[in-house]
Amino acid sequence: MDSLPTPRRALRTAGCAIPMLLCSVIAGAQTSSSAPPQDLVFKNATVMTASHGTIEHGSVWVHTGKIAGVGESVNAPSSAQVVDASGMWLTPGIIDPHSHSALDGDVNEATSPVTPSMHMIDAFDNRSADLYRALAGGVTTELLLHGSANMIGGQAVVIKNKFGLDRDAMLFPNAPGSIKFASGENPKRVYGSRDQLPSTRMGNFEVMRMAFEDAKHYMAEWDAYDAKVKKGDKDAVAPKRDLKLEALADVLRGKLYVQIHCYRADEFLTEEAIAKEYGYKIRAFHHALEMYKVGDKIAADGTAIATFADWWGFKDEARDAIPWNAVLSMREGVKVALKSDSDDHIRRLNQEAGKMVHYGGATEDEAIRMITLNPAWIIGVDDRTGSIDVGKDADLVLWNHDPLSTYARAQKVYIDGELFFDAALPGWGTTHFSGVMHDGGGFGSDDEIGSAEDGR
């Protein structure tokens, strides 16, 4: 192993990126917003594309919400609105592939270890202050996940952080579905404390296998019924519909991306073995603090990770965590994303990426990809966002400093070419929100620090 740089733990900071929202409800300030310009051009920016390097003194042309040109110059119409970005940095919008924001505490349905028919959209609060904090930190897309109390949890929802619009307008159109699985301490603690299955790691995986066996039987019943119908059997009786087993059948058919809360190297291998046994693919391991031990094996399976930059020691499963995990895993061929799992960290994901340059020697391009293009792939929307490329959604952040620096602050945040946050505006800088924000319920996470007892 190559020698590793010493972690620079005393990074300089310049205060919090966003004002803390301490009261249970706060008033939002609205700036009157007109329709976004048909054509918008950023000029003289340091353009960090995430896909094809950095362009000094670059330009980006946005046409009707899509990126239409990228380079040292662009052929935009003379009528285009121009943003002079001299001395500023332009990046893709930050993407968080593991968030529990705006769920008002409804993160876990901890009444059964198998709850795949739950949908996180049903708990989504589009007026949550969590969303404001994220937006002001440059986050434009989030995957809102079920917690980790259950071996097989609920189905996620993907949002574009168009804070101030109604709920349906914030949903990412036609984003692939994801489902949250979990292994390790949380499920066995939550249900073991009630003297029920699972109470051990063996029990965890037994619960999974039993659920998939039930799903296979359910699929076979429906296949048999469909075959009878095709043959014209008028006496064919449809099986009773089971929403739980339908969701698991979608996993087995490859219709849902499997996102797994998992820390330990041995459990990565067990999860991959079960996936192969039942014929589904794992999209990403989340947390994944021991991936550096088995990165070559997981890379061969095409599974990504969504991990912390440097969280460690907060539970038994995190004892072997190291701050070089992300970069070492990346060097083994694993696609690596950084995620928040925290309503606090979500507003500083750019700083988390900056740590990767310090911890292990990632390049700036690699670090930017960890919070843009790679998480877009985990969610399944990398063909539409996550980099500054022609044809992609114009989800963009303009920064006053190198975004990997602790001094960087998001100045303007655009989603689909429309301005949703402007630090120069009075009040909170929102362009579409008015009224009262709902308190996001604190700065909890999945929630490993401070709320692990809840199985989140």
Automatic annotation (TrEMBL):
<dbReference type="GO" id="GO:0006046">
    <property type="term" value="P:N-acetylglucosamine catabolic process"/>
</dbReference>
<comment type="similarity">
    <text>Belongs to the metallo-dependent hydrolases superfamily. NagA family.</text>
</comment>
<keyword id="KW-0732">Signal</keyword>
<dbReference type="InterPro" id="IPR011059">
    <property type="entry name" value="Metal-dep_hydrolase_composite"/>
</dbReference>
<dbReference type="Pfam" id="PF01979">
    <property type="entry name" value="Amidohydro_1"/>
</dbReference>
<feature type="domain" description="Amidohydrolase-related">
    <location>
        <begin position="90"/>
        <end position="410"/>
    </location>
</feature>
<dbReference type="GO" id="GO:0008448">
    <property type="term" value="F:N-acetylglucosamine-6-phosphate deacetylase activity"/>
</dbReference>
<feature type="signal peptide">
    <location>
        <begin position="1"/>
        <end position="29"/>
    </location>
</feature>
<protein>
    <submittedName>
        <fullName>Amidohydrolase</fullName>
    </submittedName>
</protein>
<dbReference type="InterPro" id="IPR032466">
    <property type="entry name" value="Metal_Hydrolase"/>
</dbReference>
<dbReference type="InterPro" id="IPR006680">
    <property type="entry name" value="Amidohydro-rel"/>
</dbReference>
<keyword id="KW-0378">Hydrolase</keyword>
